């Protein structure tokens, strides 16, 4: 295994210095909540696209996708491909809708449409999900850095978490955006550099590498069986993955603050639409690039005399970090290490600001409407600090257990808290006849369904009547349960319905 040399450390230090400089540069203009949370709506389209891509593509992409393909094939790519199907709907309808209806938080819309209970349901689930996900991102980054550089996992978690927290705290959303632009360039450059080494080191070049990976089945897309029986199989079919992927990315781009905040920072509606289209359409090829890296890693070790340690074979998520640490020369290791750190920091900084936005707008300002903007800005910075401490703590807990069991428990809890969120937004956005009572009935039934399905499915509790389908379908069905019960409940229960001017796709705002 190659050890880091002076040049590697210099590259990493230059990267960190650059990120710190961007944070310091943007901090001078953060004097209002509008500047701190939505950059005073002055970000150009290309930066919107880069920050959306960098927020979506994290260190999980850097580590997990190559490991998954190396161990199996491209089966996860069908899930990722579904992101591209949402482009037209999001760009043409969702982006201008949110820029018209909300100020800073996506969940302001839910209160306008269905009351504060719906807003609380959406915002609380988002905060818990982001903290848990950030903890896992930091943990996975630390594991990869440990394999590449040998640095202690706990110190990497604390260092990356603390450094990202500082520049996000002082620079706000603008620091997160402009560092994401730089980090996105470094990240993509690192991926192409790795791919180049994989293509041209083995004898025979790219053709030999791709042929060997194809012969080993590394470009396979999984099981395309379509039958009633396949819904109950432990291993999800390609159709289940595509359905889950389409709903997941629709939920992300339509309901999550992390994405919607990027729509709000642009200078104009047109630039927001251009930026979002660029962000989504560059995210999908980035995922496929890392899937290609995974396939080529298999061919590299099949075509060359290099042997893999047993622990790498048993834990394929370590395959790309191991390749970097053993096959790249001094200097390039530092560059790739900077790319790995950038992939984590871009997600962490963006999500910390989004969590702070929700905490400030949906909780603090909602319960303390008399507070000044200066007080809200101070609270927002405290929320960034709190979110950073909690996510770093979650990651540090994972380093102690060296297990994802704790994370899986959190994910199960979040699926119960925030189940069916896409269905709730669809009730408000697409339907004129839905009411507050119907929406709350949908939320309650959805929570009951997800709780029952999770307990009797993944957690294995026998209640006599159990959920025996593939567990991925719980998330798929939850949106339809909330939407269907919410719509039917609105027809049967009636209830309050606000002035719909501008609140549905059918009702334009009154000028």
What does this structure look like?
- The protein is mostly helical and 511 residues long.
- It has 21 helices and no strands.
- Helix 8 (116-149) packs parallel to helix 15 (319-327) and helix 9 (153-200) crosses helix 17.
- The longest helix is centred in the middle third of the chain and has 48 residues, at 153-200.
- The protein is globular.
How many runs of DSSP E, i.e. beta strands?
A: 0
Distance between the termini: 66 Å
Major sheet:
none
Q: What share of the residues does DSSP label as strand, in percent?
A: under 5%
Identify the overall geometry: globular
Question: Would you tell me the structural class of the helices and strands?
Answer: mainly alpha
Structural Rg: 23 Å
Please give the share of residues in helix.
over 70%
- Which blocks of ≥5 consecutive residues have pLDDT under 50? 404-408
Order of helices and strands: HHHHHHHHHHHHHHHHHHHHH
**What is the typical, i.e. mean, pLDDT?**
87
The number of distinct helices, counting runs of at least 4 residues, comes to: 21
Summarize the structure.
With 511 residues, the chain is an all-alpha fold. 74% of the residues lie in helices and 0% in strands.
List keywords for this structure.
511 residues; mainly alpha
Protein topology:
Elements: H1 6-27, H2 33-38, H3 45-56, H4 59-71, H5 77-81, H6 87-101, H7 108-114, H8 116-149, H9 153-200, H10 205-215, H11 238-255, H12 257-264, H13 269-303, H14 310-314, H15 319-327, H16 332-367, H17 373-401, H18 405-417, H19 421-430, H20 436-456, H21 472-493
Helix pairs in contact: 1-9, 1-16, 3-9, 3-12, 3-13, 3-16, 4-13, 4-16, 6-13, 7-8, 8-9, 8-15, 8-16, 8-17, 8-18, 9-13, 9-16, 9-17, 10-13, 11-12, 11-21, 16-17, 18-20, 19-21, 20-21
